[in-house]
Amino acid sequence: MRVVLEANPEAMVVSSCGYPSRDLHALGDRDTRFYVVGSMGLAGSITTGIALSHPDADLVLIEGDGSFAMGVTALPILASHSRRLLHVVLDNGLHESTGGQRVAPQGDLCAMALAAGYRTATRTADPSRATVQVSDGANFVVVPCGARTGEVAGRVEPTPREMVERSSRHLVRTFGRRAVAAQTGH
Amino acid sequence: MTAVAVTGNAAGTLLAACRESGVTRYLGVPCSTLKRVFTNLEDDPAFVRMPREDVAVGTAGGLTVGGEKPVVLMQNSGLGYCLNALTSFVQVYDLPLHMIVGWRGGVGLDAVEHRVMGPATVPLFQLLGAGVSRYQPEEEQRPFGDFLDRVRLNAPGINVLLVGGGL
Predict the structure, then answer these.
(1) Is A48 within 8 Å of B93 when comparing Cβ atoms?
(2) Residue B79 phi, psi (nearest 5)
(3) Taking CA atoms, which of A27, A142, B38, B122 is between 20 and 30 Å from A179?
(4) Would the CB atoms of A36 and B89 count as touching at under 8 Å?
């Protein structure tokens, strides 16, 4: 996670519920962090909305493999509507935040991403040797990892409302309010 | 209080009023009750096709974080899919969410698959504390109830326009 953040210091980062959000928060909270504290499986949909509203923004989505499996319905639209996305799946094969239960069979994650329309898909145990910088289109990286050995990070501190306000402020200030051609009403 | 004169094409009138109320984007899963609304949106760049209703709600939330004002279009049969997205995301994050919902199984006979969700739709929305308006064409000045006023206000919470019988 640290390698991905260091490669994308300006990016807006969305994280799925449970430990991924707590770990991301522990690595340094800032306005460009949007932790999805509940609603498992929805992080990809939320990222799709941010990508639609600010196509020029560099986006990083970090989620666990359990969250990815739950939100896979959104994968093709996320791929289709993202111009600058790095989608990272931390694959430990476990629902670790709920006690380490094994996840349901989920197939070949990289093949699914490519079939859904991602430009690239990479599986690497060593992100420091892979391309983890946001680039054009939707790009997918799976990082196989083991079960947690260290301590669990603390809960996310900013309230959900604070996260909305600060992320919104950051996006609109940096990229402007996009004028959408709403042509309807004929 | 906003008066909206409906002139034949109620779907077009509703969409024009949404646009005037600041709506920037429509996210939808089709419903036959809302067929004319979807027909109006078919070639509109502000319309984004969605695979499932919870994905539409999540994407709407992301758009709101990005500074836009989206409307979700769906059938009430998709409300079950949405419940987690509405409660754990929209309401926990204090977001506004505007929904135009085709209401199957609400009044009179309808297909068997709408037998349970039809009558449960309004109580479910009320349990969530949503503002619920019903499309009433006979109310010539305010056929969409409070829906458009709430779109304009864009306060946190769920704002629903229920459309039974088509428009």
Answers:
(1) no
(2) -60, -35
(3) B38
(4) yes
